[in-house]
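User: Hey, quick favor. My workstation is busy. Could you predict this chain's structure for me?
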Amino acid sequence: MMKAKQLTLTAMALSVSLSAVAENWPQWRGPNHNGSSGEKNLPSEFSKTKNVAWSTELPGMAAATPVIWGDHVFVSTADEKAGALNAMALDRRSGKVLWNHVVGKGVSRDNRSNYASNSPVTDGKVAVFFYGNGDLVGFDFAGKQLWKRNIEKDYGAFAFQWTFSTSPLLYEGTLYLQVLQRDTPVRGRGRDGGESYLLAMNPKSGKTLWKHVRPSKAAAESLEAFSTPAPFEHNGRKELVIVGGDCITGHDPKSGKELWRWGTWNHQRIGHWRLVPSPGVGGGVLLACAPKKGPIFAVKAGLDGTQDDSALAWTSDERKLTSDVCSPSFADGDFFILSDALRDKTLSRVEPKTGKIKWTLGLPDHRKLWRTSPTVADGKVYCMDHGGNVAVVNAKTGKLIADIPMGRDGDNNTRSSIVVSQGRLFIRNNWKLFCIGKGARVALK
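Assistant: No problem, here it is.
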């Protein structure tokens, strides 16, 4: 009897241990908002046919990263043939499409990207999808539309040179969306006196809780940002970190009130320095990646008010460490930065307090851009180039473990980050979503 009881307790403990390791990936930058996961036993050897649990055809290409909660995988995509924007849910175990709803018409306004570049977000109750045409929609897990609104209709047309993209954020029960844009029209879009702002909403209803205007001294396109806010806590103070408009700021999540500000990396107020990477957070510093081969600036955490350059912990040598598009990741006490603006694209592990580079790896050259933000888990770094080629890197040593083609001939503009959840990798190319796991049987569709 005692032996059986001990076996039961051991099994329960093992179950709790395994479930603690298995994580959801509820938003673009994952469960920790920094591109990392605590998952273990992840594969480093795979292909389009090896260690594939399933693969599912998608209606069209998009830069949006899938998000996962439990057995639901939520995917935002554009269907070019139908001229529609789709919100989808797949079964995590089989890849079966659970539901697929058309939520908007029109696919793009330029040839750089489409309206489905924004990643969805979920809290386990509602899944929220945002699109570059302003559509913002909430669904329950069964696929029932709970609410829908259009941010452009509510607050004015977006003023961006290219198609606007930012991913919504769910943090402690509140839905956030940032719009950092020009204050004058561009290409017939926007309006004079347009504002940049942070919006807080009720995720159950989509109703606005507050709108905080975020001013900036930047000019023209330098007012534009395609970044996503990052939650951060330091010495008990919670804040939302926002980067764009030539500066980085921290905000009170309850009101949007600005707590601190540092900037600028653009002293000459050059007018074409739009900002793409989201802030890097971790190790007591906050990273702002200046665009166009500019440095990376590490701002000390715990600031108040408007700061000068004494607020900086370090500034990178832009000849060695710079990012024009990819967002930094933070894991195991260090940052992992993909320097996509260098001629030879590199991945580096960087110490937060000093900016010391622990290692740098030259990424494989497939004559494609590297513009997916790295994902770090299980002692490995996963990143993918525009052609769908996946690099798997040893996070400790910086050695290349594998270079795996997951796209097809002619693929380009693949920009979805690799997702880690419940022992699996989820890799999206321009035409399919793959679920990869150790020992998984081939179940291609």
